[in-house]
C-alpha cells in the first residue's frame, strides 16, 4: 500500500494508475468496520482504491469535538493494508487549504436546512469544501459514502449533480456493532456504561418504527420515542426526525407512499451520536 503524504506522491500514484478507475473513500481516521466496508466496496468495483485520512477542521462547529477526535494512524494503516487498499492519502492543512482554513459557499437548498444543518452551523459547508477539494486533487471515478451520515451523502450527491463532477457517488449501508450501536469513531470516547446505554438509540428507533402507523401523526410518535431514549441515564435526544429521503424535509404523518427514514442525534455524555433507519 502506497502512503501518499505529499502532492508529489499523489501525482506519482495517479501517473502510475493512468486511465484505471479509481475508487475514493474519504475518512477522518480512527477507522472501524464501517469505513473498511466502504473500502471493500471500492476494491470490488474499482481498479484501484485510495483512502484519505484527514480530520477536517472546517466541518467541526464544536472545538471540543475537534480537539478530542480520536487519532489511531498506525492501526488505521494496518487495517487498510490488511483490507488490500492500494493507497492512503494523508494530506495536511497546507495541502488542502493553501489559502487558509476557510469554507467555500454552496447552495444545498432545503437539503442542508434540517437536522445536522440546523444543529451544526457551518458543518456541511466545511464538509462539502473538503470533499470538493479532495475530488479536485484525487480525481476519483467513484467515491464511497456511508448511509450512517445520510444527510451528508444526500448533500454530496446534490453538489456532484449541481457542479457536474465526473464522479459516481456510491452509498454503503450502516455497519453496526453486535449490540446494534452504529459504528462511529466517536464511540471510542464512550465509557463502558455509556457504550452499553447508547445501544438504546437503535433499539428504541427500531421499537418505535414498528409502532408507526400509516396515517399516524409523526409529532406524537417523536415525543414518545424521545421520552423513551431520554429515560436512559446517559442519553439526551437532540432531535428525532421523520423525513422524506428525497427532500430531507420532515413529514407530518406516516405515509408508506413517501419513502422516509427516522433520523436521530443523541448526546451520550459529551459525545454526540447520530443514527438513522428506514421506515416500513
Ligand atoms: P468519518 O471518518 O466519520 O468522516 O466517515 C468516513 C465515511 O465512513 C463516511 O462516508 C461515513 O458515512 C462512513 N461511515 C462512518 N461510520 C459508518 C458506519 N457505521 N457504517 C457505514 N459507513 C460509515
What does this structure look like?
With 280 residues, this protein is an alpha/beta fold. Helix content is 39%, strand content 20%. The chain contains eleven helices and nine strands. A six-stranded parallel β-sheet has the order 1-4-3-2-5-6, sandwiched between helices. Helix 7 packs across helix 8 and helix 10 packs antiparallel against helix 11. The longest helix has 16 residues, at 123-138. It is globular, with a radius of gyration of 19 Å. The model has no long low-confidence stretch (mean pLDDT 97). The chain binds adenosine monophosphate (AMP).
What overall geometry do the principal axes of the alpha carbons give?
globular
Ligand inventory: adenosine monophosphate
% residues in beta strands: 15-25%
Mean pLDDT over the full residue set: 97
Q: What order do the strands of the largest sheet run in, or round the barrel if closed?
A: 1-4-3-2-5-6
Tell me how many strands there are.
Answer: 9
Question: What's the helix and strand layout?
Answer:
Layout: E1 2-4, H1 7-17, E2 22-27, H2 33-45, E3 48-53, H3 63-67, H4 73-83, E4 87-89, H5 93-96, H6 116-119, H7 123-138, E5 142-146, H8 150-162, E6 168-172, H9 192-197, H10 199-211, H11 218-230, E7 235-244, E8 260-268, E9 271-278
Parallel strand pairs: 1-4, 2-3, 2-5, 3-4, 5-6
Antiparallel strand pairs: 7-8, 8-9
The structure holds adenosine monophosphate (AMP).
Amino acid at each position: 500500500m502506497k502512503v501518499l503524504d505529499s502532492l508529489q506522491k499523489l501525482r506519482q500514484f495517479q501517473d502510475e494508475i493512468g486511465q484505471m478507475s479509481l475508487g475514493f473513500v474519504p475518512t477522518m481516521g480512527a477507522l472501524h468496520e464501517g469505513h473498511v466496508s466502504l473500502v471493500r466496496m471500492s476494491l470490488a468495483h474499482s481498479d484501484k482504491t485510495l483512502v484519505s485520512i484527514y480530520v477536517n477542521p472546517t466541518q467541526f462547529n464544536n472545538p471540543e469535538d475537534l480537539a478530542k477526535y480520536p487519532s489511531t494512524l498506525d492501526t488505521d494503516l494496518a487495517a487498510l493494508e490488511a483490507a488490500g487498499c492500494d493507497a492512503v492519502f494523508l494530506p495536511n492543512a497546507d495541502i488542502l487549504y493553501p489559502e487558509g482554513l476557510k469554507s467555500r459557499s454552496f447552495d444545498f437548498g432545503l437539503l442542508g436546512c434540517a437536522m445536522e444543518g440546523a444543529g451544526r452551523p457551518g458543518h456541511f459547508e466545511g464538509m462539502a469544501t473538503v470533499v470538493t477539494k479532495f475530488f479536485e486533487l484525487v480525481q476519483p471515478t467513484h467515491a464511497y459514502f456511508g448511509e450512517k451520515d445520510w444527510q451528508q451523502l444526500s448533500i454530496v450527491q446534490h453538489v456532484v449533480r449541481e457542479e457536474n463532477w465526473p464522479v459516481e457517488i456510491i452509498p454503503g449501508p450502516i455497519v453496526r456493532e453486535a449490540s446494534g450501536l452504529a459504528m462511529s469513531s466517536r464511540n471510542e470516547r464512550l465509557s463502558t456504561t455509556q457504550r452499553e446505554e447508547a445501544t438504546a438509540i437503535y433499539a428504541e428507533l427500531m421499537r418505535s418504527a414498528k409502532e408507526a402507523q400509516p396515517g399516524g401523526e409523526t409529532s406524537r410518535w417523536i415525543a414518545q420515542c424521545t421520552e423513551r431514549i431520554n429515560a436512559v441515564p446517559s442519553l439526551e435526544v437532540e432531535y428525532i426526525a421523520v423525513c422524506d429521503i428525497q427532500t430531507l424535509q420532515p413529514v407530518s404523518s406516516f405515509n408508506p407512499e413517501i419513502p422516509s427514514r427516522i433520523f436521530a442525534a443523541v448526546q451520550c455524555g459529551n459525545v454526540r451520536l447520530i443514527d438513522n433507519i428506514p421506515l416500513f
